[in-house]
Amino acid sequence: MTVPVLLVLAQSTPTTDGSAPSPATFVEADLAAPQVSVLDLGVTRGDGIFESIGVVDGRAQALEPHLNRLAKSAGMLDLPAPDLDLWRAGVLRSIELAGDSAAASELLVKLVLTRGIEGGDDVTGWVLCFADVSHVDAREGISVVTLDRGYRSDVAETSPWLLQGAKTLSYALNKAALREAERRGADDVVFVSTDGFVLEGPNSTVIALIDGEYVTTPSSLGVLEGTTQAAFFSDVEARGGRASYRPITVDELRAADALWLASSGRQIAPVVSLDGVPVAQDPAFTAAAEERMLAR
Ligand code: PLP
């Protein structure tokens, strides 16, 4: 296991002598040493946002869509707009520092931005690059259970303060849902709305093949806009296939011709069973699509 690379956001410091302040930058930090205050709102309230970016053959996948989503999440949480040039440079620097690991294995780069210390003016941010991540098992197939999300499908419209569709640090319930899946003998989860629509996984986008078309839930239903699913749809359309965003009922999910959970790192993981019932497979298609997704 290679030691992860940590870069911490150093804020610009105002000067008193009229000289220009030093620009904000990411500086290399010791992962073993304390870096975040116990007063940080990211720690005490889960008040912040994050992104996880897959890196294949040293290339950060969907870097711009991830940065744009970071900015969108920041806007939804009324956080200061992140300086995307700075965050982009941080991502690229972390991959550079991963050195040989970047060529030898897949990496996962995590960006975290919190509201900072209670009462303070500065946000807290860091970039963490994990090496030696493996998604081989997931890409071979996952078992999934449906779990009630407890919200209607119009929650994003009726209750925007619930922050549906933002990638917040408050993932305790996403983790709880994954533990529930494990208790039920499954690998992962598809959240469904109280009015019977498919939402998303705790850390993935649902893609269903229905009547020859690849479909996914639109973000208007309060799901995160997936960068991996978007890349998959572009690939499908570039090859003359059909892909669309529309609400999917749970009944349609159960009758789908194939299902995948898409996420950075994992790419597209084929669902082999849903609530204990085997799901139809297209292994040749999945293998070829996974290869193209890895090569992008
Ligand atoms: N939906 C949720 C709730 C997620 O947390 C994630 C990723 O972590 C996704 C969807 C998939 O997004 P992406 O493909 O950009 O990783």
TrEMBL record:
One of its GO terms (molecular function) is lyase activity. The keyword Cell inner membrane does not apply. Keywords: Lyase. Coiled coil: none annotated. Pfam families: Aminotran_4. Belongs to the class-IV pyridoxal-phosphate-dependent aminotransferase family. This is Aminodeoxychorismate lyase. It comes from Frondihabitans cladoniiphilus.
